[in-house]
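Propose amino acids for all 76 sites.
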C-alpha cells in the first residue's frame, strides 16, 4: 500500500523548477490516514502486550482494568 501511495504522489514545482509540494488525491489521502491509524493501533497493542508480559501476565499489575470496571464506567 505504501508503495502505491508513493507512486501516486504528484509534485508541484516552483518558478525555478524545484519541487515545492507533494499532492495526493483525496482517496489516497484517506487510505494513508487509515494506514497510519492502523499502525498506531498496532504499536499501542504491542506496547500493551509487552507491559503485560513484563508484569508476569498479571493484567492488574500491568495497569489493565477489569471488564466490569470498564462496563460500569461506560454505563456511567
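Proposal:
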Amino acid at each position: 500500500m505504501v508503495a502505491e501511495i508513493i507512486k501516486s504522489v504528484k509534485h508541484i514545482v516552483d518558478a525555478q523548477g524545484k519541487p515545492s509540494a507533494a499532492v495526493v488525491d483525496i482517496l489516497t489521502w484517506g487510505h494513508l490516514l487509515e494506514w497510519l491509524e492502523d499502525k498506531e493501533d498496532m504499536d499501542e497493542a504491542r506496547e500493551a502486550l509487552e507491559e503485560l508480559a513484563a508484569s508476569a501476565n498479571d493484567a492488574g499489575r500491568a495497569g489493565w482494568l477489569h471488564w466490569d470496571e470498564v462496563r460500569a464506567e461506560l454505563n456511567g
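The chain has a mean pLDDT of 92. Residues 2-75 form one domain.
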